[in-house]
Write a structure and sequence with these properties.
By secondary structure, this protein is an all-alpha fold. The chain has one domain. The protein contains 6 helices and no strands. It is elongated, with a radius of gyration of 17 Å.
Length: about 120
């Protein structure tokens, strides 16, 4: 159903906004820094970062629409109805970053998500 896909794309967009808001708030607190190198390079330009995030939301929505149309074109109606799972997966991953930031902010506990970027260098 396209309504499910729209719901999860919207959930992804909300998580992206909350992640950015938490990131900028946490950067005002001494001792916190952004470890994701793909986000860190945009921190000096909030507008550019917002555009990048909006493009990500638009790309997810477009992916869902194109995948659904492609499955329907090939007669895979059952697969077309399950495309919302792509948006759900992306939303869950993005909400994990929000949960990580909240845990870090409220308790100081570094979740395993930090290990992903521990060896990254810019």
């Amino acid at each position: 159903m396209m309504r499910r896909a729209t719901l999860w794309v919207a959930a992804y967009a909300v998580a992206a906004f909350l992640d950015l808001a938490l990131t900028y708030y946490m950067l005002t607190i001494p001792g916190f820094c952004e470890v994701n190198p793909h986000t860190r390079i945009f921190l000096s330009s909030p507008l550019l970062l917002a555009v990048k995030e909006a493009a990500g939301v638009a790309a997810l929505a477009l992916l869902v629409v194109v995948m659904r149309a492609a499955f329907r074109a090939y007669g895979c109606e059952e697969a077309a109805e399950k495309v919302w799972l792509v948006a759900l997966s992306a939303a869950l991953i993005r909400w994990m970053t929000v949960a990580h930031n909240l845990l870090l902010l409220l308790t100081g506990w570094e979740s395993p998500l930090t290990l992903i970027f521990s060896s990254s260098r810019i």
